Structures are given as C-alpha cells and as structure tokens.
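Fold this: NADH dehydrogenase [ubiquinone] iron-sulfur protein 4, mitochondrial
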Amino acid sequence: MERSVRIYSPAKNAMQSGVNNTRQWKIDFDIMPEGARWENPLMGWASTLEMQFDTKEDAIYFAEKQGWTYYIQEPKARKFKPQVYADNFRYNSGKLRIIHTK
C-alpha cells in the first residue's frame, strides 16, 4: 500500500504572539480516500503521527527514503504592517471616525 504524506510548517498559535513553534517542519499522514484510515497491520489500530524535522529538506529526504509520495504545503508569507502609537492621534482628512466608548 502506498502512503501519501503532507510536509508542512505549522501555523502560529492564535492565542499567543510568539512564532517559536513555526520553525520546524512536520510530516502528517493524509486520510485515505473513501473515509478509510491507515491501520496498523499488527494490532489493527488506526494510527496517526506527526514527525518533526529541522528543515524542509530533511523531511523530504525522510519521505523519499521511506518510499512515500509527498506534497509540500508552503507556509503563507506573514504580512507585517509597521505601526506607531502616534498613528492613533494623526490627523486624517475626510470623514471622522466615531468611536463609542459604551
């Protein structure tokens, strides 16, 4: 049976501002078509696993060494819009914003 895997870099946690967990690459097994999951041939248990690698090349090398077909999901580029606290008080011509406090 041929295994298909996804190689990806995880997204940043929405609850925190840090990006520490986004530096590694992971291999995730795709769910097989028609709702069937991969079963362990010894025990018959359905298994899932995420393997971590330091670089994308290491993950690709491991997948090729195991004989798995893979596809790479590239991470989305982060948009960074620099803002200054003084921008909150800058004059903008045009319609005024109405800010309700209660």
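The first helix runs from residue 56 to 66. DSSP finds one helix and four strands in the chain.
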